[in-house]
Amino acid sequence: MAPPSYSDLGKAARDVFNSGYVFDVLKLDLKTNQNVEIKAGGTQHLASGAVNANLETKYVINKSKYLFTLVEKWNTNDVMTTEASISGLLPGVKLTTDGTFDRKKQSKAVRVKSEYKNDYVSLNLDTEFKALKPIINASAVVAYNGWLGGFNVKYNTGDKELQSNNLALSYVAKQFVFTTTVNDNKLFGGSVFQKLSDKLDLGLQVSWSSESNDSSLAVGSQYQLNQDVKLRAKINNKSQLCIGSGIKVKEGVTLTLASLLECRQFNQGGHKFGIGLELAL
Question: What GO cellular component term, any one, is given (predicted)?
Fold first, then answer.
């Protein structure tokens, strides 16, 4: 099995903390799984009343060993993206190109992405062209006996500046994942994911900034109560308690409820709530 891309290192723990939480919004997502996959979504922020929406269409052509994918995206900020990808030209190789047009800012960008994977290594090279001098984003992950080591760099050829320099080390077992990261030699972080049972997952996240000397600690869990209900909870060192649930109303309809409680100043308000509805047709 090929190792994950750099951006997916520690994903199991991040999903415990991020998946299923919607705060201060009403959210609606709709998707179809026909020949042309269509996704539409919208959010309304409860505090400001602002509404954002997006639309995505995806068309997949599977011809022998070749896989072609065409994706079109649009949102209410008038940002349009067209993406085309192909895999199967060579074993483990995937090539992608996309173009983005921001109508409000009258700006354009083109990005070319390449990916190579085998059982021991995952390589990614993204090149973004906003001008003649591109921004290069490169990453690599190497696997050995359950250990995953990766690095990621982002370089602006126009400014001749190294914008980011990140390292990560992860250990993956059957029901346990440990990941540690160092970003720009300033932000140090770590996460632990533990599958305690078929129904219960536990996550831990810590981080420390050498620049500001700020630190954070969070513990989260998700419990599959039954085949239709999943419960989630997390708390951090700022005494912010988040509680959420995912309820399968019926086949293809999922309701998400979430709340954020400021426990340190419980009587002063500042609490947030959110509702999400996902429809799969």
Answer: pore complex
